Amino acid sequence: MYFGKKNKFDWAFGLGCCDAFSLIVSLGLVHVLQREQLLSGEPLSFRASILFGIVSAWMLRSTPLYTWDAFTGRKGALFGLGRAFILAAATVAGIRLFFFRGADREVALTLEWLILFSSAVLGILRQVFRWVVMDVMKLIVVERIAFAGWSPSLKKVVEAYRDEMGTFHILVGFFAGKDPAIQAEAAAAGYRCLGTIEMVETMIEKEEITLIIIDERGLEAGDAGRIVEICSRHLVNFKIIPSGFDVLSTKATVRVVAGVPVVGIHGLNFDHYHNRIFKRAVDIVGALVGLILFAPVIAVAGFLIYRESPGPIFYRQVRLGLKEKPFRIIKLRSMRLDAESASGAKWAVENDPRRLKIGTFLRKSNLDEVPQFWNVLKGEMSLVGPRPERPEFTANFRETIPHYNLRHTCRPGLTGWAAVNGLRGNTSLEDRLTYDIYYLENWSLMRDFKIILMTLFPPKNAY
């Protein structure tokens, strides 16, 4: 970063200082009012007050209260404040109960006052700080941004700057490469053309540009390096969108090796052995519980399937799992025995004539997937993960859809992030892959539990 130009205002740091000041004011206010007997309850000791402040600050930091949406009031900021202080008060009460002289009613009243005053003071001071930032600081600190090149990735970045941080950012325009198609696409999106790459140095001074975002894919070889050199001479900040990172981009990190910056993928939660162990432990417990709980459902469904279409009640099919290892998935049969004898492998569609009457209900309720708890118990599947596909489909997807094989870096799931968002069956493969990759990038046990709960309310296009 260069410091010759006006520096960008760090609103998040300022907001943190504002919140810390609010906590101090709230603690002091409650203490003084209780000393003057204007509030009921026993004043907290100095140690308990410090503990409440530290825990409150930590709880606040763990909530999305320091995002731009929360700061501008677009998301439930008040709910987040209340949750943070309730958790902090519960922590202090618990410590007092188990380690000190007990959490009596007087202390409980004090904690209730602290929750009320802290939420009110923080809410008021946040609004004041927001007014200062939105209406005063924007007159002093504004970043003037230009971009060079054009691609779908750069379009997302530019729109994020424009929509999420528009208060401090002015999008001046773009520098076009020699490809007229790229220039036309950026112009069609409503951005002003500042000229070709040769005009960068001139326009930096004329337009007072403070940041240039460079997209290598929209430029010719050597253009990015020339722009960086110009930026360094004029003390202008720059950011580079490297080519080749359309996938797993949120985990892309830069490591300097022998003075050379090397971009790579690092930090996927699945890369850590302890996370794999935790996930597998949850899978085993969940599979055992699922098999026990759904045994009566399987028995009843099996009877109804056999009565409508005599034959096996289970349907076994080869799917590809972890590292493309084939396995036989088990499902309750929802279609006729000869469903693919004439057509071959194909996805189910809405109002599929091959399905059984009971099969419609089974698929819409996801109950046809229940026997896959056995696959989970055997280690072939997980409770949550990308849904497994058939080898006949995968062979084609691997060649036609970039990064498709990333789905096979974890065990396939009985349910998945794409599935609970309505992307299953005959839906866009690219969209499904986007959701699967998002799951891989952002996996956590809590996300798995969320997906399991969402599975209880299946999407409309389950057929």
General description of the model:
This protein is an alpha/beta fold and 463 residues long. The protein folds into 3 domains: 11-137, no CATH class; 142-243, Rossmann fold, CATH 3.40.50; 273-455, no CATH class. The chain has helices spanning 11-35, 46-62, 68-71, 77-99, 105-136, 152-164, 180-188, 200-207, 223-234, 273-293, 295-308, 357-364, 373-378, 391-400, 417-420, 429-441, 445-455; strands at residues 143-148, 169-176, 193-196, 211-215, 237-241, 252-257, 260-265, 314-320, 326-332, 382-384, 413-415. Helix 14 links the parallel strand 10 and strand 11. The two termini are 53 Å apart.
Give a quick precis of the structure.
50% of the residues lie in helices and 13% in strands.
Helices and strands in order:
Layout: H1 11-35, H2 46-62, H3 68-71, H4 77-99, H5 105-136, E1 143-148, H6 152-164, E2 169-176, H7 180-188, E3 193-196, H8 200-207, E4 211-215, H9 223-234, E5 237-241, E6 252-257, E7 260-265, H10 273-293, H11 295-308, E8 314-320, E9 326-332, H12 357-364, H13 373-378, E10 382-384, H14 391-400, E11 413-415, H15 417-420, H16 429-441, H17 445-455
Parallel strand pairs: 1-2, 1-4, 2-3, 4-5, 10-11
Antiparallel strand pairs: 6-7, 8-9
Helix pairs in contact: 1-2, 1-5, 2-4, 4-5, 8-9, 11-12
How do the strands line up in the largest sheet? Answer: 3-2-1-4-5
Q: By helix and strand content, what is the structural category?
A: alpha/beta
Residues in β-strands, percent: 5-15%
Note the overall shape: flat
User: How many DSSP H or I helices?
Assistant: 17
- The strand count comes to 11
Radius of gyration: 29 Å
